[in-house]
Automatic annotation (TrEMBL):
<dbReference type="InterPro" id="IPR002938">
    <property type="entry name" value="FAD-bd"/>
</dbReference>
<dbReference type="Pfam" id="PF01494">
    <property type="entry name" value="FAD_binding_3"/>
</dbReference>
<dbReference type="GO" id="GO:0005739">
    <property type="term" value="C:mitochondrion"/>
</dbReference>
<dbReference type="InterPro" id="IPR036188">
    <property type="entry name" value="FAD/NAD-bd_sf"/>
</dbReference>
<dbReference type="InterPro" id="IPR051205">
    <property type="entry name" value="UbiH/COQ6_monooxygenase"/>
</dbReference>
<protein>
    <submittedName>
        <fullName>FAD binding domain containing protein</fullName>
    </submittedName>
</protein>
<dbReference type="GO" id="GO:0071949">
    <property type="term" value="F:FAD binding"/>
</dbReference>
<feature type="domain" description="FAD-binding">
    <location>
        <begin position="231"/>
        <end position="418"/>
    </location>
</feature>
Amino acid sequence: MLCRSLSMRAPSPVAAHANEVIVSGGGVVGAAMMASLQQLRSHLHSSSAGQGGGSAASLLASQLTHLMLVNSGKRPVYDAANMMDRLRTVSITPVSSKIIDNLGAWDRLTTKHPYYRIAVRHEQANSPYLGAGSRSSSSFMTSVLGNSTSSEPLLEFTDLRKPVGFICFNAELNSCMMDVVEAQQCALADTDADAAHDTVCFGARLEGVRIPSRGTLGGPWGSAKLVVGETTTDVTFGLLLGCEGRDSPLRDVLSTPALQHDYAQAAFVCTVRLEKSDDGNVCAFQNFFRDGKIVAMLPTSEDTANIVFSTTPQHAKELLASTQEDLVAELNRRLCAFASNDIPKILEVPQTSTPDGKVRRAQGSFPLKLNVATTPYAPRAILLGDAAHSIHPFAGQGLNLGIYDLCALTSVLEQAIRSGQDIGSSVAVGQVFAGHMLSHTAPVIAGMEVIKKLTYWTPGLASVGMKALNSIPVASTLAKDAILQVSSGALFAAQHRRSYLLQ
């Protein structure tokens, strides 16, 4: 357990206990939010000082003098030799990569494998194991899709000029973002020790969180007890940011209404080694199945990839318990067999032997649920990332939405501080931020739900739609551009083009 002030001197009681902002959760979104707050403080100081207002600059920056990050786990440290640190991957859009770069973490990453193509297939049209009689009894469907299997993608997005996205290891991104938090504070301490009061607590938690009731305007600061090991300290805050993930305890404190749905699925994830492909493994593949299963292969290097298999909980358990040979055969049957000339063949799932003789494989599983807070704020508190909206992973947008959240909130906080508003106000900050969150999460979630339902309930119609979207001139270009505007983050960037995190 570790709780340390990153100040170069011992903080005063006020600095130790009172914080303008507390970030609860030290995952990627929490660490990035902390780094963004530190950068906002510097930005407020430098932009105002540049206009000849030294005292005004100090006053604005003082609104974020005391920052705290609380994380229940250990300090994230990435170990490239640990195969489990390479198990969980995240797909990063070009816009998210720009935000991460402006925060100072992008250049620190050793793995940010670009992909220039996305290829989507469906069992209805592409599976070599589906009999002709099972494809479609409709003459229209047959005329469009044919009555035999095809290895060609139903839908394809390609941009040879620039990456469609990047695949990174979550553990490395988390570790690098925490490095940024600590580096920014050390730099601040070297230049202005009086302002260096940021605290990062690992192995810690907040208990007894108290915030003003909903509808309260200009109420008192919130309060909580910071528990680190056997030590309990009273803390107060002007704004508490819940970045703890899908099981956020702050959600219960807010008692926020939510849109919830249990997909009755689990995601089986594993790392695989592939046959090398001629293109350098720069395509992300996704195959849909008539029973609702979805499998994705996300490239992490020239000959490795991450598998995300959305399946039934029972099937996920079977995959976890299967032998190396059976697992590789099952994954190849779901992927490479659909297009052996396009989708790389899986050679193995890396594994190692433990000292007691047991085999440990780079794999895991977690349940899939939709859980979206419809009111992700209250006086003195805001939810971000998975704490506000946990979604199905097949769209690859989960972390990106969290990155967009922190970018939007940073802009809202900057505007509130410059206009003299209370950063904990549910009107000046909470409601405004919720509007921004809705604008970048709703299109993704709605589109994702429509696609998932269509590919399951009407696989033939979904296949026809994807093929038409891929092949009809003009309409195909316009439709794909519209989809990429949302999926790449370009629409978000256009809405927030004044944000310094996007410059």
